[in-house]
Amino acid sequence: MNSNIEQRDEQTRADRLVVLGTGGTIAGRAARRGDHVGYRAGEVAVADLLEGIPVPAGWLVQAEQLAQIDSKDIGPGVWRLLLARVRELLDRPEVGGIVITHGTDTLEETAYLLQRVLAPAKPVVLACAMRPATALVPDGPQNLADALVVAAQPGARGVVGVCAGRIHAGLTLRKVHHYRLDAFDSGDAGPLGLVEQGTCTLFQPWPVADGTDGVARLAWLDRLLGPQPWPRVECLFSHGGADGWLVRALLAQDALQGHDRPDRLQGLVVAGTGNGTLHADLLAALLEAQAAGLRVWRTTRCASGRVLVAGSSPDQVPAVALPPAQARLALLLDLLTA
């Protein structure tokens, strides 16, 4: 391992970057070096990923294997580990920044959750890859090196993702391509900045805390780290022929299992067509869900843009300016304070 990488050192000044490994394609392994699809994610240890990666001058790097999964399988179990460990590390004065190696499939969800709940004043940088570590030309090493540069950047703060030389804010990034190396964008907001030849160029300020009260965030964190199940929120899509059957099936199943269960269905997010429009039959079913006590939000299934609401029109199903996966987490957090 690089001589600058240590496991533990109790210093008090901010000279430490901690890299938390969670698996993903960046840690993937394939039987053939040219195979970019038929690989197993989460096979290579994070300490091995750091071998040969340049460390920013004046910094030490500490590696921790927090999880080793394919990010498509992420859920409250790994998110609890991340929230708890990142919070602990942010409180340590010697830690100047955190890098998380993560799969691309759910990176936008993890980034959103960490930023909303923790709103860190230090940088928390998610690094990823579209090719496994065993590829002939893997992209993970450069992305990881760039992430360390960002984490060591003076004044850096907040949760960001780094991929293919672009820095994306945690609240706006989304995966837009299944194979291309530059698989992420930030929608209409555009990237936060670039990493080129080990140097950061910013186009926008670093992420800061949103308007959520700090006490509310602490309450979220206590609830999310507790043993009880997280509020259940499911995602649906409006499409041609959407007759509301899935909504009614969810309501029926929930009623069959009992409404007093801690893991009962509490919310629905529906990705509408275009400007968040909903098939009339689906809308009728969603109104039934609201009448049954479920919280229902809508967004758009379009890759870019946000739902616009006419000020004079009643909004039967409230619209949010988030992509579906992030909207689901936003509603989950909202339900924690309901």
Approximately how much helix is present in the residues?
A: 25-40%
Radius of gyration (Å): 21 Å
* Weakly predicted, low-confidence segments: 1-11
| Average residue pLDDT | 93
Shape: globular
Strand content: 15-25%
Largest sheet: 9 strands, mixed
Q: Which structural class do the helices and strands define?
A: alpha/beta
What is the helix tally? 8
What's the oligomerization state? single chain
Order of helices and strands: EEEEHEHEHEHEEEEEEHEHEHEH
Q: What gap, in angstroms, lies between the N and C termini? A: 48 Å
Describe this structure as you would to a colleague:
- The chain contains eight helices and 16 strands.
- The protein has 338 residues and is an alpha/beta fold.
Quick structural summary:
This protein has helices at residues 46-49, 76-90, 107-118, 140-151, 214-225, 245-257, 280-291, 324-336; strands at residues 5-6, 16-23, 29-30, 39-40, 60-69, 95-101, 123-127, 158-163, 166-169, 174-175, 184-185, 193-196, 199-202, 232-237, 265-272, 295-300. It has 338 residues and is α/β, with parallel strands linked by helices.
